[in-house]
Fold this protein.
Amino acid sequence: MLKVTGIQKGIVIDHIAKGNGIKIFEKLRLSQVDYPVVLLINVSSQKLGQKDIIKIQDNVDIDFTMLGLIDPKATVNIIEDEKIVSKQSLEIPREVTGLFQCKNPRCVTSVDDYAVPKFTRVENGKIQYRCNYCEELTEYKL
Amino acid sequence: MNSTVKHLVDPNDFTVEEINQVIDLGLKIHKNPASYARLCEGKILGTLFYEPSTRTRLSFESAMLRLGGKVLGFSDANTSAVKKGESLADTIRVLDDYCDALVMRHPMEGAPKLASEYATVPVINGGDGGHQHPTQTLTDLITIKHFKGHIGSLKIAICGDLLFGRTVHSLLKTLSRFENISFYLISPPELKIPKHLKDYLLDAYKVSITEFTDLEDCIEEADILYMTRIQKERFLNEEEYMRLKDSYILTRDKLSDAKPELMVMHPLPRVNEIHYDVDGDPRAKYFDQAAFGVYVRMALISILLEVADHA
């Protein structure tokens, strides 16, 4: 069995649904950082059957809003001295700024560099966001 | 951004009480405009029209001039620094210092909201794409209040382009907050109101909405018939426009089944959706409506500039 050792300090994003690991890796632009990162995919899990895990050494400053949007069921463990010092559960964010584009081509955010897309989640059972500028609903998809 | 400045970029920026305040002041000004002729002396209204406009721009200019104020601005984005590639935020940050309030029409939806984030003076949305047109709604409401004496407890039929019609979107969003309003929405299936707006109105206000494709199916019931133009400029496909442009043409004959106290309204300009033979019918109120646009905008400007109490 493949073994990956624990990290001394940093973050472990655990219980990522199988297949979402690479998406989180890309969205957090982890291929561009200069600290050690490990992406594990298809790891055996009692809870999920298989899961993905990301371990980030030496950095705890990541975008939790983005993580919540991609995989709200993932868990985040903050590690110090090789021990978990805090566990954070994620939730689907209510407010989102700049993480995706409004689907309305006539929205000002699609043409103006100053207009960072901002959204507020609509409580309708889907992951849909109302644009704060044009009010169009955009369904978030990876 | 100055968060204490009051803007009108979305109908919901004003409470029902504030809307009534604007309308009541507009009706007072209508009765006695001379009393308000110097209210805005020394004030300047900036008119930023990135898209063509006749009624909205000229009624704002007329309103400010009738209040004793001055206006400056542009009516064609090609004659402004925008043509040179200036961002909206930069334009606003500059004109903000030149004017006491800004009125803006823009083809992109949400542009006035973006402007309000950079402005330290009140920003008024004079129409943004197919999104909202809140001052047309104030014009509609003052007309209804003048002729009906009240705004609630009405059956309102809205006919035509409900998809791209920003006047319709603002009217729906505003009237939904008044008591006991029922909407009959008449349009071709292709031009129904946006789903996100319908869901919002049903969810937020539990308002009564019934949709029709034939005007004849609900004209007898209506207290107000609000006709709208099929908006050629919003279609990406000319063929689609040609197919839908004559969907509804109101004639005097079709009004024979309607209530005698019906009000026929239209934000104007009309193309052919109201036949000229309706103009002589006492139920036709669309030219009165256009006239009230000046008085209600005088009221709005006075309130936003905080000079309304000085009359």
